Amino acid sequence: MGRETVKKVLILGSGAIKIGEAGEFDYSGSQALKAVREEGIETVLVNPNIATIQTDPRLAGKVYLVPVLPEFVAEVIERERPDGIMLGFGGQTALNCGVQLYDMGVLQRYGVKVLGTSVESIKRCSDRLMFKETIEAAGLPMPRSKAAYSIEEALEVAREIGYPVMVRVAYTLGGKASGVARNEKELVEIARRGIAHSLIGQVLVEECISTWKQIEYEVMRDKYGDSVTVCNMENILGMRVHTGDNIVVAPSQTITNREYHVLRMASIKAAEALQIIGECNVQLALDPKSERFCIIEMNPRLSRSSALASKATGYPLAYMAAKLALGYRLHELINKVTGRTTACFEPALDYVVLKFPRWDFEKFEGVDRRLGTQMKSVGEVMAIGRCFEEVLQKAVRMLDKGKPGLVASDISDRELLKKRLSEMTDEVLFDVAAALKVGFTVQEIHELTSIDPWFIEKIKNIVDMEERLKALRGRPLDEIAEVVKEAKRLGFSDKQIAMCLGLTEDEVRAFRYKRGIVPVVKQIDTLA
Fold first, then answer.
1. Same domain, yes or no, for 201 and 249?
2. What DSSP character marks residue 346?
3. Closest by Cα among 302, 303, 307, 260 to 284
């Protein structure tokens, strides 16, 4: 089988930045270009977005600023005559374009080899029916579901399964046109929209498991069948909310060791069944009341979660995936951070990483702020720290929304809070803090939101610390040094502490330095 003997490689970028497809694909494309050029291979990039790093001539050999659409890419192939093409580094746009080029016979006509995961495997991942058949043939569980190509078929499947049902759309990204239908009227609307948006006019109607946990694994696999899981992540808002709009923590915090390994093996088995070469993202649903789990979907490409996993672990996923696409084995690739270990060593994390999305609903009049299966966020921030409370507070500050940390919203009306918690808007975690302040129990909030009690307890720690600091207002600072130190460990900023104690930010900072309460810097080295 050996290495690929290619002299020129065409890489498809993701095109314009839009909701659902943003900077994460620029990140993966840039790494892929670097990995390919290191091998002395000429690179050609197709990406019309001039505001990206990958279109820099120092990174890409030749750049074509044309749309990532089959008719334009076919012209580039005719002119450049590349030996190989990489489809996995430009998001769903690049994948769909590659599949269409293959179906049109363009790749075969010019002898262009698809490097990495084959078009057949991409189709089996993107086509909901083929994916379901492949996963079930591998002995892995899927939610009860059926594919539909018309509104009538969708209604028939829903009658069989029972409402509510989840509708997923083939060949789309960001949960585009998907949704939960609670009755026939809602299903007709969602199915009509989904069939129109799908590349092959197909939707999957499945049982609704919105109260389950949503867990993700990033899997690397070479063409010889060796696999590793680089990172696992937990979506705090569960299956109710699309992973792109979810608040994600790595590593997962609330699953048991047994559950972790069962889901890990299922992810590796799924990558094997679909013959992935390079990197893939596996999304699973886990029933919190039993050990039942289901494979939800797989992305046979670098995804939003891959960019997060890469930065969270220090493992350059896109770079390694490009090398694997060129025919390398996992054990042949050296970890650049350590200089000694190879790509088949799974990273170990002795810290917590949190991704928090940013929504810009203020710019849109009358917009529905409720979160669901369709992505609405326009970007995200990533925070790293020693404990969950710390990363949550850091992330909230980084959103640049003028909030000094996870401070409760001003709402104290219990009925309004109940409504907001059950609807789950972009302010959900602030509403959780507000509910705890007015006396809601952890269990009550869990029942309204399906958020795991562990996360609610952690938010309670922040709320309790805020109350504790306020109770110490007026006391000499020297007497409360330990409390200030504990607050800093829980991610409180000097401004937050000052607001609670009735002091200025400068006074708190000066006191901290006097008492040696200072931050430390640690390196992400992949080895804990």
1. no
2. P
3. 260
> In whole angstroms, what is the distance from residue 297 CA to residue 281 CA?
8
Given this model, what pLDDT does residue 20 score? 61
Contact yes or no for 143/285 (Cβ under 8 A): yes
Give φ, ψ of 484 to 5 degrees: -60, -40
Q: Do the strands 84-86 and 8-12 form a parallel or antiparallel pair, or are they unpaired?
A: parallel
Place of tokens 């190879």: 342
For 252-264, the pLDDT digits (tens) are 999 999 999 999 9
* CA–CA distances in Å: residue 195 to residues 104, 169, 178, 200, 278: 22, 7, 10, 8, 30
- Give the pLDDT score at 1: 40
**Residue 478 forms part of a structural domain:** no
Task: Report how many helices (DSSP H) and strands (DSSP E) the chain contains, helices first.
Answer: 19, 16
Amino acid identity of residue 483, one-letter, is V
Which has the higher per-residue pLDDT, 129 or 284? 284
How many domains are contained in the chain?
3
pLDDT range class, residue 489, cuts 50, 70, 90: very high
Query: What DSSP state is assigned to residue 408?
Result: P
Residue 171's alpha-carbon distances to 43, 105, 198, 299, 440, in angstroms, are: 27, 19, 6, 10, 42
Within 8 A by CB and 6+ apart from 140, the residues are 266, 269, 270, 273, 295
Higher per-residue pLDDT: 487 or 51: 487
- Please list, residue by residue across 230-240, b when 16 or more beta carbons sit within 10 angstroms of its beta carbon and e when fewer do: bbbbbbbbbbb
- Tally Cβ neighbours within 10 Å of residue 265: 13
Residue 448's alpha-carbon distances to 18, 285, 376, in angstroms, are 32, 19, 22
Residue 215 and residue 288 in contact, taking contact as beta carbons nearer than 8 Å? no
**What domain range includes position 241?**
213-358
Residue 113 in contact with residue 7, Cβ under 8 Å?
no
Asked if residue 19 has pLDDT above 70, the reply is: no
Contact 126, 171 (CB under 8 A): yes
Q: What is the CATH number of the domain that holds 34?
A: 3.40.50.20
The DSSP bridge pattern shows strands 42-46 and 62-64 to be parallel
Show which of 167, 192, 207 is a domain's final residue: 207
**Could you count the other beta carbons within 10 Å of the beta carbon of residue 348?**
11
Considering the entire predicted model, what is its pTM?
Answer: 0.91
Question: In this structure, are residues 2 and 327 in contact, taking their beta carbons and an 8 Å threshold?
Answer: yes
Helix (H) or strand (E) run with residue 385 in it: strand 379-385
Across the beta sheet with 62-64, the strand order is: 62-64, 42-46, 8-12, 84-86, 113-115
Residue linked to tokens 């013959």: 275
